[in-house]
Structure formats: C-alpha cells, structure tokens
Design brief:
The protein has 260 residues and is an all-alpha fold. The radius of gyration is 22 Å and the shape is globular. 71% of the residues lie in helices and 0% in strands.
Length: 260
C-alpha cells in the first residue's frame, strides 16, 4: 500500500461522513412498521414497474446509439468530432429540468420537430414514450463516455493484426474492438440504467406526472414527500438499495482482457 500524508485522513473522513449521513438518517427514520405495505401498494408497484420498464427500454436505446457514437469519437480526431462530442456530453452537466424543457420545445406538440409529428398524429410529450426519451437523453452520455474512454485506452495492435489478416472493419469491430471493452461496456450499461431509473427533472418537465402512464418511482417519491415526507421513505430506500448495488457492481467490475 502506498504511503499517503496522515493529515489527508481527516478531510477524507469528513467527506465520507457527509455522504453517509443522509442514507443513514433515511434508515434511522424509516417507518419500518409500514415499509412492506408501502412498497407493495398498487401506486408504488405501478411506479416501480414503469420506472424499471422505461429504464430498460432507454438503456437499450443508449446501447443502440451510444456504442456507435463512442466508437466514432474514440477513433476519430477532428474539430468537428470534438464539437459534436462536447454537445453529446452536455446532459452530464445540464440541469435535468433544462433538458426536459429542451425536449418540450423540440418534440412537444408545438416543438421544432414535434409540430410535424403532431400533424402526422404522433404525440410524444406527456406519454410513456416521453419518459423513455427523457431518460435516454440524460443517460446516454454515461454509456458513451464509459465506452469511449475504454476504447481510447486499448492497444490498437489487435485491430491492426485483424486488418492484416484480412478482417474488414465490421468484423474487426465485432470480433476484436468490442470484446476488448466488454467490462467498460457493461459498466456503462449499468450506469446508464441506474441514471435512467433515477431520472426526475427531465421526466416531470417533458412527460408530466400521470399515475400509471408517466409517474415513475422518483416522481412517486416526490409526490409522497409533498403530502407526507415519512410516506416517501420506503420507496426511497428501495431506490437507494438499487443505486448501492449499481455502485458496487461498477466498482468491482473486472479489468478488460485481450481477445483470444
């Protein structure tokens, strides 16, 4: 173990305590006598089901679009690509509510694109589809940045050998490039799912808070917290446990290995 200055332990301990005090307080204040009844109520089950289904769908979209984007960003170097990459990663720092507002003006009934969709009889805003798109908007950069970082750190020797042996770009991608970054791809997928599952700001702005249609678990917690903060704790604990599992899974992921 590498030696570090002893004084670093003090601010590190304060930081750890600051992060842990919230989850610990949530557990301490939990109305355990009502926990099972609360998380198994029809409203909570509907919100959890919708959150999981939409998060899985949005994660699939993140894989569909995010992996190609990551490959292009990692293997291309130009001012145009850099600008596009910066724009794609914008949701990482953009307030989710602003993202939801942007989606409203883009895909809402009177949006830049949405007005033409509405003329064709396609409504997106304030539907389950809007939940999926809002989640994808905020989760996609997590997958892109995870996979891109792994691709940039891999040795291009294997790809060069594959090309020398006659493998085309597509075969090289599937047989060499992607197997090299499977651990990071899995980690990015898990992070994207967790981000989608916990999405709130963009969802409530773009999709609303309609029970059974757009009310996901975070939105249900928000509604319960307004009426009775203690009532929101059981469902909040469920999401906190899911988040903990995700963090542990990502932290303990195995390192990448070269393809055989």
């Amino acid at each position: 173990m590498r030696r570090i200055p002893v004084w670093l332990y003090a601010p590190a301990a304060v930081g750890v305590a600051f992060i842990l005090i919230g989850p610990v307080a949530l557990v301490v204040r939990m109305p355990w006598q009502d926990f099972v009844a609360s998380v198994t109520s029809q409203e909570s089950l509907d919100a959890l089901r919708l959150a999981v289904v939409t998060a899985l769908t949005s994660t699939s979209l993140c894989l569909l679009f995010g992996v190609p984007m990551a490959v292009v960003f990692a293997r291309s170097d130009g001012i145009v690509v850099r600008v596009i990459r910066a724009l794609v990663l914008l949701p990482l720092v953009l307030p989710p509510v602003v993202g939801g507002l942007a989606l409203i003006y883009a895909l809402g009934r009177n949006g830049v694109v949405g007005q033409y969709l509405d003329d064709a009889g396609i409504t997106i805003a304030f539907t389950t589809t809007a939940v999926i798109l809002a989640q994808t908007f905020v989760a996609l950069p997590f997958l892109v940045i995870s996979v891109e970082g792994a691709l940039r750190s891999t040795d291009g020797e294997f790809e060069q050998v594959a090309a020398t042996l006659g493998a085309g770009p597509t075969r090289t991608l599937w047989k060499v490039t992607l197997p090299l970054v499977i651990p990071s791809l899995l980690a990015g997928t898990v992070l994207a799912f967790a981000r989608a599952l916990g999405e709130f700001g963009a969802t409530i702005t773009f999709a609303g808070n309609l029970p059974g249609t757009t009310q996901t678990a975070p939105l249900r917690i928000y509604l319960d917290a307004i009426n009775d903060p203690a009532q929101a704790l059981p469902l909040a604990l469920v999401l906190m446990v899911v988040a903990l599992v995700v963090v542990v899974a990502v932290h303990l992921r195995p390192s990448g290995t070269a393809p055989s």
